[in-house]
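Field: COMPLEX_INPUT
Field: COMPONENT_COUNT = two
Field: RESIDUE_TOTAL = 616
Field: MODE = joint
Values follow.
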Amino acid sequence: MKNEIRIFSPATVANVACGFDVLGFCLDNKGDEMVVRITKEKGIKITHIEGFELPYEAKENVAGVSALAMYEHAKPDGGFEIEIYKHIKPGSGIGSSAASAVGSVFAMNELLGRPYNKTQLTYFAMKGEALASKSEHADNLAPAIFGGFTLVKSTLPLDILQIPTPLDLYATIIHPQIEIKTSEAREILPKKVLLKDAITQWANVGSLVHALHTSDYKLIHRSLQDIIVEPYRKQLIPHFDDVKFAAMEAGALGCAISGSGPSIFTLNKGMEVTKNVKEAIEFIYSKTNIDFEVHNSKINTQGIKIIN
Amino acid sequence: MKNEIRIFSPATVANVACGFDVLGFCLDNKGDEMVVRITKEKGIKITHIEGFELPYEAKENVAGVSALAMYEHAKPDGGFEIEIYKHIKPGSGIGSSAASAVGSVFAMNELLGRPYNKTQLTYFAMKGEALASKSEHADNLAPAIFGGFTLVKSTLPLDILQIPTPLDLYATIIHPQIEIKTSEAREILPKKVLLKDAITQWANVGSLVHALHTSDYKLIHRSLQDIIVEPYRKQLIPHFDDVKFAAMEAGALGCAISGSGPSIFTLNKGMEVTKNVKEAIEFIYSKTNIDFEVHNSKINTQGIKIIN
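Field: COMPLEX_OUTPUT
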């Protein structure tokens, strides 16, 4: 059995348009790396952090908290050392804390000989996610662990469904380098919504799931609409409407807020369109004073994985 | 080309639990029959009605109104005579008016050599449905025309999706012989709902569509929940909670209000369970003073059809 493992923990998109709070998907070429190794000494120790400044104290670190949750359940003979190579900027809206929370428990599970299944890993990771976002949710954890598109049907008990990913589906992500406070993104939402709007939204959720099952890209396009949350939250993201308009004009299937922002994602059919969408979005933001990053990604159907 | 045709126009269930206003399915052994024949004389004439008392004047009859809508669009040389053998009681909540609205246009389309597709038939049928329910909707029309499970993603423009039907799925329907006014069933609903409840509902819609695609009966069970409409409308149906409890105890996958009631439907896996569910429901209502009918049905994946 291996004593040490290196993993890639992917970035993810939650709140996929109509699927606010339930639908997410996994990105391919953006993610954190971690090295986790078994130690004789008991406990969880974070020995190295690169990329962003994060606490070394396990109880104060997202990856540490999820690791501790698993450690206390598994009660192994020894302990674990964790090195974190953080590439996903915290607060960017593409599952930075989820990647941290998932990475440690996935690696530990591999080193222990896989005593836990994916849903159980998600439970442990939720403890870490809760440190970052003050609530136990699995919107980003589920796609990071399962890969592809996931639907979190319920959190308690945890009920995660893997929805098929059409082969030719790509995402474009723009990350404007601004800060949105999660608390503000939450407070801006109404407690109540019109029943008729809710009906439109669940028709779209149903049809999006159907479209993913049938690889019906036109229906994906018709379904990727969020009439409930986006009208409120888009105010927090400068030039959201311009980005969306440009992306749709360039051929995107849909464009919406990633997580609670500030990142914006699009879904696109094929690499050609995806390149055009990226250019169109870059053009919009290049005219502003805001720093930004744009990248393209295939939908990652594997999720978190071991690397060499 | 045939001059005369006899058709079976099936009963249907709309508002399938979480899928209020969007999800419906088609029943197998309950439905109206119609005979439609080409006449030299222009216009739409209803020449015979059996089963229930309904107006003979085409403009006042649901089947007549939808027939007129198609007739005025198709502008054929002659006209049509319609005989209606009504078996679905109006106001029972299993798509009685939809069966009428669909029957005439389906038959006329066959006699004309199928100039219209299923979505176009639904458009004409919506005109008839509007006479009965004061609004143009396709909740019952879609499953009657397309068969199986349907999701009406939008009404304007009409966007109907056929969702796969698991092979071993049956329905049990109880029709308590009471009257619920559609206006009352509507007025009892709140204009606004909690966002958190709406999220639960759209998670269930997404998972129900996924479950139907994957024939995952356990997930169908977990998804068949309506936390938004049922709590209000069940008050209009005597002994609803008792029926639901008995049905679930007998093994039903789910139990909810059919359409806007008073009928209640269950979905069940296999004929054996379905028989038990029927007995359990009958037992509940046999202790009351209310007349009722219970029947079992395979899910009808064909929809409306020609018979001899």
